[in-house]
Q: What sequence folds into this?
C-alpha cells in the first residue's frame, strides 16, 4: 500500500480519501477548510494534516488533486508552496479535477522538467460513485504511469481507461459530458413535446428506448418524474449531477471548441440553456431539471 | 389473406406492396406514375391497377397510403375521387405516410362520419426495413382497429406498437426522430471536438458507448467513417436516412411544437442545421453527413 497525498477534501475528495483509507493507504491531506481536515483526521490515525500542498507532496509517493477549477489547479501545482515544489523524481502526480486539457498539459510540462510523472485522471460517476468506489477514471498521459498508480485508482473506483497523451482524460470527459448535456436537453424536449401532443410519457419512453432515439438520458436517467425509480427526477431533482456542474463542463467544452476552431452548434446552445437555468436559481437541481424548465408552469 | 389497396408506390410503397404480394395478399394500386404501376403489375397477376384512389378503396378491404406530405395525404383521402368516396363501412384505412398529427385527426373525423375505421401508422426502418419486412409501425387510433389489420401490417414489418389515439403514431414518430436528429448532431459535435483535441475517435467512441453519452447515433450508426462496418458513414454516406427526410420530420416537429407552445431549443436548431445542409446540396446524403459538414475541409 502507498502513502497517498490528497489535496481537495470536498464532496468528491472526502469520499475518495475515505476509500483510500479503507483500502489500507496512509494519507497526507490538505484543504483550505480546516474543518474538513480535522474531521478526516479524527476519522483515522493514518491521516496527517499538512499546512500546504508542498508538504503533502514531500510526504507522499502518489499525490491526488481533486479541485474545483483551472485556476485553483494551476495555483496548487505551481505556487511557491505548491505540489511541484515538494515532488521529487519517482513520485507520481494525479489530477482528478475536471479542467481544460491545456491545464493538464501545462502542469505536465513543469513536472516533466523535474522528472516527475503526471497524469490527468478526471472521473465519471459523481458523488455516489465516489462514495461507493465505482468511479471511472479517464486517464491522459503515459500508460506506464497509469499502470504504476492503477492500484491507488482502483482503491477509489472500478475502472481506469487510458485515453491517450496528457490532457486526453480531460478531453474525453469534456466531450462525453457535452454529448450528455445535449442528450438530456434533447430527451426533455422530445418528451415534453410528446406529452403536449397527447402521448403517455411511459409509452413514448418505451418507443424511444427501442428505437433510434435511444440514449442514456432516456433509458437510465429519464427526466420525467416517475418514469424510473431511483433517479433524481423521481426525487424532486435532488442529488445527481447538478446543473452548476454540467454548466462548468459545458464551459470547458466551449473553451476547447473555441481554441480548436471546432463547430458545436448544439453544445454551445446547451451551454447557454444551462447558464439560464443556473442564473434563474436552479444551479443546485439535478441537470434533468431542464425538463421542468422547458415544460414551464403556466 | 386480404384484398389490400396500396396508394403511393414510391421508394417505400413499392417494397411494401411486394411484401404484401409475397405474403399472399391481392392488391389494388394507384400512383401518379404509370411507369411504377405497370412495373408492379408485370411483377404479379394479383395486382390490379386503378385510375384513382376511390377505385382502390372500392376494391379493397384494407387501404394503405404511403405518400410524401400533408397536402398529398389530405388530397388523396378527401378529393372527389379520393379514398373516402370509395370507403364503405367495414373497410379499414391505414395511413403510413409521415404527416402532422392534425392531418391524421382530420382524415379520421371524415372517415368516422361514414363509419369507416382509420389509423395512422407511420413506420421506422426506412427503405431497407421496407425491403426486408422489418418495419416498425407506430399506430394511433383504436386498438381494436390495429388488431384487425395487424396481419396486414406484419406482412410488411416486424412490429406494430400502439401509441394512443388517432395522431399518436405520428406524434411518436416525430418526437423520436427529433431526438434522433439531435443525438446525431450531438454525437458528431462530440467526436469532431474530440478528434481536434487529439483523441482517437475509436477510443472516444468506446468511452462514450460505456458512459453517459451513450446513444444509438454513437453505438449503432456512428457518423465517423470506419468506426462501424455497414453504416452509411463507412460508405460515403450513401443510402440510409437522407438529410432531406430528416429535414421533413424536423419541419413537422417544429410545426407541432409551434402549435402546442412547446419549447424545442435543440430541435429548432437541428431543423436549421439540416436545412443548411440541404440548401448546400447534401440533401441526398445520409443524415450522418452532418459530421463532415461540421468538420469542414479546410
A:
Amino acid at each position: 500500500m502507498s502513502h497517498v497525498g490528497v489535496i481537495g477534501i470536498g464532496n468528491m475528495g472526502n469520499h475518495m480519501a475515505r476509500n483510500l483509507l479503507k483500502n489500507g493507504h496512509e494519507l497526507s491531506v490538505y484543504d483550505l477548510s480546516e474543518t474538513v481536515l480535522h474531521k478526516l483526521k479524527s476519522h483515522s490515525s493514518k491521516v496527517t494534516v499538512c499546512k500546504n500542498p508542498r508538504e503533502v507532496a514531500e510526504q507522499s509517493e502518489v499525490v491526488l488533486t481533486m479541485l474545483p477549477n483551472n485556476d485553483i489547479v494551476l495555483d496548487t501545482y505551481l505556487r511557491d508552496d505548491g505540489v511541484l515544489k515538494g515532488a521529487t523524481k519517482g513520485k507520481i502526480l494525479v489530477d482528478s479535477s475536471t479542467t481544460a486539457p491545456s491545464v493538464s498539459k501545462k502542469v505536465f510540462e513543469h513536472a516533466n522538467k523535474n522528472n516527475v510523472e503526471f497524469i490527468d485522471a478526471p472521473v465519471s460517476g459523481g458523488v455516489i460513485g465516489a462514495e461507493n468506489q465505482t468511479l471511472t477514471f479517464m486517464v491522459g498521459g503515459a500508460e506506464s504511469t497509469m499502470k504504476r498508480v492503477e492500484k491507488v485508482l482502483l482503491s477509489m473506483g472500478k475502472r481506469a481507461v487510458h485515453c491517450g497523451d496528457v490532457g486526453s482524460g480531460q478531453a474525453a470527459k469534456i466531450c462525453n459530458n457535452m454529448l450528455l448535456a445535449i442528450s438530456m436537453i434533447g430527451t426533455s424536449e422530445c418528451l415534453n413535446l410528446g406529452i403536449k401532443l397527447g402521448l403517455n410519457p411511459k409509452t413514448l419512453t418505451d418507443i424511444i428506448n427501442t428505437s433510434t432515439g435511444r440514449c442514456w438520458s432516456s433509458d437510465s436517467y429519464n427526466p420525467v418524474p416517475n418514469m424510473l425509480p431511483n433517479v433524481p427526477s423521481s426525487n424532486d431533482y435532488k442529488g445527481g449531477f447538478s446543473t452548476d456542474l454540467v454548466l462548468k463542463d459545458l464551459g470547458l467544452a466551449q473553451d476547447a471548441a473555441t481554441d480548436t476552431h471546432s463547430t458545436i452548434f448544439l453544445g454551445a446552445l446547451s451551454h447557454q440553456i444551462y447558464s439560464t437555468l443556473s442564473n434563474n436559481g436552479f444551479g443546485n437541481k439535478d441537470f434533468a431539471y431542464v425538463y421542468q424548465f422547458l415544460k414551464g408552469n403556466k
In short: The radius of gyration of chain A is 20 Å. The mean pLDDT of chain A is 97. Residues 168-196 of chain A form the longest helix (29 residues). Chain A touches chain B through 66 residues (CB under 8 Å).
